[in-house]
Every structure is written in structure tokens, then in C-alpha cells.
Amino acid sequence: MNISIAENIKMIRETIGEAAILSGRAPEDIKFVAAAKTKPTGLIKQAVLAGVDAVGENRVQEMLEKRSEGAYDGTPLHFIGHLQSNKVSKIVGVCDLIESVSSKSLVESIGKRALSLGITQNILIEVNIGKEPQKSGVLPEQTEELLDFASRTGGIFVLGFMAIPPISANNDRNCYYFDIMFQLFVDMSTKKYDNVSVQLLSMGMSDSYVNAIRAGSNMVRIGSALFGER
Questions:
Q1: Cβ atoms of 47 and 55 closer than 8 Å
Q2: Which of 112, 122, 135, 150 is in the most buried spot, having the most CB atoms within 10 Å?
Q3: What H or E segment, with its residue span, contains residue 100?
């Protein structure tokens, strides 16, 4: 099946715009991250040329290989997958934003590597909003503690939060978690910390981004709706 990346982006942008307006914001307030896991460099380059706001990758080795092929030239690169401490040195200073920082140990490792490079690494704190044992992410009630810790760690700048709510066919259930996460985002944005500016809420994927935007998300990670099923 031929996939028209540009046409898909146009349709997704229109849908994003409608959801943004319904939530009282402008379409350009919402960042569109192309989730490129398993997708070849050629398709990613098409997405970049067609105007996605960033590209997100889940796997460190895959990301490094495609980066060497120029897959992300011209757009910011985000790491959106589960991050192991032993892979931190490979992505700090390579990714514009690490979205999946979920523990003090990761914050420490990222900060240490960033300081050794003489840079500041932008991150999001990943929240396990559904408290699912099989998922990474800080628990909602421990988010403020991790945010405070990150604010006191050199080489780190926190730009907001990322969340992956539990999978549910029930839209009301999805919206419940989106609403809870947005309220946490709002609460944390009122805190005054060094090295923290809570601006971004990365929440919503191909099957849920409309509801996520309506709930307050301003960054969505879209893969299958853009590139087709894996």
C-alpha cells in the first residue's frame, strides 16, 4: 500500500487544529511528534519535509543508526521510549528532548553526562498516571519529589511531563486519566524551581490524541496514523 506521508500529515494537522480550538487554544499551540519506531529513514525524511514538529524514537540503537543516515536532519529529535541507565551516554546531547525520565537515578545519570559535555539536557518527567506495575514512570504522588530533585541536578532542565495512560476501549476511561494528568501538570506548573519551566505535556497517541488535546495536552506522539501500522 502506498502511504502519502504529506496527505496523512495534512489530515492529522486538521484534526489537531479542530481539537485545539475546542479546547480553547490555537492549532499551532500543539506540537506534533512523529513516532518513528521501526520506520525507515526514507519515510521519516518525508515526514520531516512535510512539516512535523519533531521526530520521536523508542530505541537507542535504531535511533543512532537512522541518525547516521540523516533521518532527522532539519527537525528536533526526541527520545520517547523506556530509557536504561547504560544507554544514557549515547543519547545525551544527541536528543533535543528526552521525554521518558522516570527516576532519580536517570536524572543523575543524564545530569552527569550533560555536565561532562558542557551542555544542559532538556527533559520531560514521565508519569505513570495509571499506576501500572508493568510501565515505567514516576507515580503521580511522587512527581513533585522527582521534580524537586531534578531542579537541583546540574546539567538538567525540565520542560514538563509525559504520560501514557492505560489502554482502554472506553473513551470515558481514557479521558479520566487525561484529565488527572492535566491537573497534575497544572499543579506542578505553579511550583517555583530552578532549572524547571513546566511548558510541555506530552500525552496522546494515534488512537487517543484528540481526547488528549481536548484534555489539555500540547504535545502528541503519532505513529500509525502517520506512517501506517507497523
A1: yes
A2: 150
A3: strand 97-101
